[in-house]
Amino acid sequence: MWARVCGALAGIWLMAAPSVLGYGGAARVSDLIAGPLAVSAAVIAMSQVTRPIRWAALPLGAWVVIAPWLLDAPAKARVSGLLAGVLLIGVALVRGQVHERFGGGWAALWRRGEA
Amino acid sequence: MTPPGWSYDPSSWSERLPLIGLALVGFGIAGYLALVQLGVFGRAWEPFFGNGSETILHSRVSRLLPIPDAALGAAGYLLDAASGAIGGRARWRTQPWVVVLFGFAVGPLGAVSLLLVILQPVLFQAWCTLCLASALVSLLMIGPAMDECLASLQFLVREHRAGRSVWRAFRGGAP
User: Fold this and answer.
1) What is the distance between the alpha carbons of residues A18 and B119, in angstroms, rounded to a whole number?
2) Which of A14, B27, B80, B119 could form a disulfide with A31 if both were Cys (CB 3.0 to 4.6 A apart)?
3) From the list B6, B114, B143, which residue is nearest A101 (CB)?
4) Could you say which of 1.20.1440.130, 1.20.910.10, 1.10.10.60, 3.40.50.150 is the CATH number of the domain covering B13-171?
């Protein structure tokens, strides 16, 4: 659960960062889209049945790290993106507890013998 | 009734009542915002972002459709609540069409409304507290609603693999 909370906090930070740190342009738009997506992935992944959604934080985090460089953002945006992006990549790798059983899960829909 | 291979029943009332409650909260928020857009209330309640709510609630995008966009959101929450309430504790098996409709209303439809809210600060450089609250309600519902949907889909796949009619099972006619 703490991994999902950290992912959501990283997303909320990305939503606020352009205003708090004062940067605009393409880097702002990037963070205002990546932020809510990170929050959404984290909150949806809080449920055990949709825990695989945590992996969405992996490409999101990678984008958040490199986007300020690609988009020629100021240094503070690069530092913010590096920290938030590395955190997102980290929490994507943490599965967390899944103690309920779901009859083979989503894979049972296309794998024989598990449903 | 717990589905085979599951540790709990996703159609039990303890699983569904919180979702129905969330949908009704979302309906209240979206309904209030729709009334603001219709001019029934002067200004939306906005504790944090100054004129942000006004900017967003009366934007050109909000007027693209003949009815206020928040009214669509309110209708969506009503669909969530209704499709969450219909059927009993085994409805993942007895009424899969209701469960799939519920999953579609909460999942894909909820995700679309979430994306529309995400675009607001990008397009209008403004934030709206109650719009964010409504988006959070939509978001909180997605994960908890998906387990029931999965149970119904697994049931339909089992019927299909057993050589029985998926359509009949979907409508709730399975023996």
Assistant:
1) 15
2) A14
3) B6
4) 1.20.1440.130
